[in-house]
Amino acid sequence: MNEWDEMAALLRTAREELRNRLMPGLAGEARYLAAMVANSFAIAARMLERGEETAAAERRALAALYGAEGAELSLATLRRRLARDIREGRFDGAREEELRAALAARVRARLAIDDPSRLRSRG
């Protein structure tokens, strides 16, 4: 177990204690706020566990839009370039479906971290 896994395990333990021991004694707004904190712990744990793999998948999807040149670019550069190219209409028309597929892959990867229940409910 590496240190990222250990941190994720700590967050999961804190979340379980919050949900199982503290939240049952709370009501109203305090319970709602505790649930938000518990969900934040879960997101942070998933980010520690899968954040690098999610970023790598996003980078591959965006790099594929730019061919050999894209393979050399960082994720941050690819994101900036993509935003610029969308604004300038470079993916309008024939390449629109290619863009949609890359963006859908990015959204699915993020949902796997931020709200996996959304993926399960939509298949």
List keywords for this structure.
123 residues, mainly alpha, 6 helices, 0% strand, elongated
Describe this structure in words.
- By secondary structure, this protein is mainly alpha-helical.
- The protein has one domain (3-122).
- It is built from 6 helices and no strands.
- The protein has helices at residues 3-22, 28-65, 67-71, 75-87, 96-114, 116-122.
- Helix 2 crosses helix 4 (75-87).
- The longest helix is centred in the middle third of the chain and has 38 residues, at 28-65.
- The chain is elongated.
- 10% of the residues are buried.
Q: Outline the biggest β-sheet.
A: none
Task: Give the averaged pLDDT, no decimals.
Answer: 92
Low-pLDDT parts are none
Strand content: under 5%
Q: Give the helices and strands as they follow along the chain.
A: HHHHHH
Tell me the quaternary state.
single chain
Radius of gyration: 19 Å
Overall number of structural domains: 1
Number of strands: 0
Helical coverage, percent range: over 70%
Distance from N terminus to C terminus (CA atoms, Å) equals: 31 Å
Shape: elongated
Structural class: mainly alpha
Helix segment tally: 6
Structure, briefly:
The protein is mainly α and 123 residues long. Helices cover 83% and strands 0% of the residues.
Secondary structure: elements and pairs:
Layout: H1 3-22, H2 28-65, H3 67-71, H4 75-87, H5 96-114, H6 116-122
Helix pairs in contact: 1-2, 2-4, 2-5, 5-6
